[in-house]
Amino acid sequence: MGQKKKIKILSPVDNFLEAKALVEEGADELYGGLFPSFFRDYPYFLSPNQRTFREAQMDEEELKRILELCKERNVPFYLTINQLYFKHKQLPLIMKLADFAISLGVSAFIMGSLPLIINVRERFPDFPIHLSTMGVALNHHSISFYENLNIRRVTLERSLLLKEIRGIISNSKAIEFDAFILIGKCPNVEGFCSLLHTNADKIWPCEQNYRLKGSEDIIKVQSNWQGFYRSQSCGICGIPYLLSIGIGALKIVGRGSSTRFKIENIKMIKEALSLEREIAEKKVLVKEFKKLYKTRFNHPCNSYCCYFPEIGFGLE
Q: In angstroms, rounded to a whole number, what is the distance separating the alpha carbons of residues 275 and 282?
């Protein structure tokens, strides 16, 4: 099954040395979060980039070094400013952060808060903004709304089926799309989730074990998530389909994880893309993808942590 075009690998990054290793391993684009010195009156819980722990935050000097490397290697770097909720008095600090990042040469912002997008767009009418999954673009009508705000690249929501993604892309010709491919699947629509992700061990509410009450169907789904690490989510079975419908980039989750973890994820995606080029038979290819998953995570894949279970498990 030959590729229609080269698809990019979009990797998270948290520091300069890591950035160099990730680019050398094959990352085509990088994204990360900045927690500047002038934000230090606030806890990481109120960071501007939807991460509540220190490991996922870089300071101004680290960002400068990463951007120097990216310029040298011709690799775009996208700064995440995708927290949905802010204190009113934080807004001037966010705008100061945006000013600073643009002055250094970041390629784009990844944003999800509509009020914040409007504020940034008023000050920087033409600066590239990519819509975060926090913006919850679930259909081509919502994409059209954001397109009117001069947004030309969108991260698709995790819960979308492949047929829904195809419909969105076919009706949004001027937009480039990213699809999540590895790590971080969630049972909730992220932009609607109000659970607190502050556990020191980074075990989030949807992964924890607790007693459930209510609808039997909901209990069945939620109980299958309990105790299963989101850090082993995967969507590589969907790669051939994503290529055929024109996805521009495969996005790997993992800000705050170790450098080795990020490198192994890039290697896995590169191997999956290689398999896609070599194997034409779909059923054989899916079997090879599942072998690749088991090699990477030391256990078989699971439909609840599969980004595209309609292919990997025949579910919709």
A: 11
Containing 296, the helix (H) or strand (E) segment is: helix 282-297
Domain ranges of the chain: 8-186+204-311
What are the backbone angles phi and psi of residue 46, rounded to the nearest 5°? -110, 35
Topology adopted by domain 8-186+204-311? TIM Barrel (3.20.20)
The answer to whether the beta carbons of residues 212 and 221 sit under 8 Å apart is no
d(CA 213, CA 219): 7
pTM of the predicted protein model: 0.90
Distance of CA 313 to the CA centre of its chain: 23
Q: How far, rounded to the nearest angstrom, does the alpha carbon of residue 274 sit from its chain's CA centroid?
A: 22
Which of 129, 128, 175 lies closest to 156 in space, CA to CA? 175
pLDDT digits (tens, 9 = 90+) for 117-145: 999 999 999 999 999 998 999 999 999 99
Asked if 146 and 157 touch (Cβ cutoff 8 Å), the reply is no
CA distance 250 to 247: 8
Spatial separation of the C-alpha atoms in residues 178 and 133, rounded to whole Å: 10
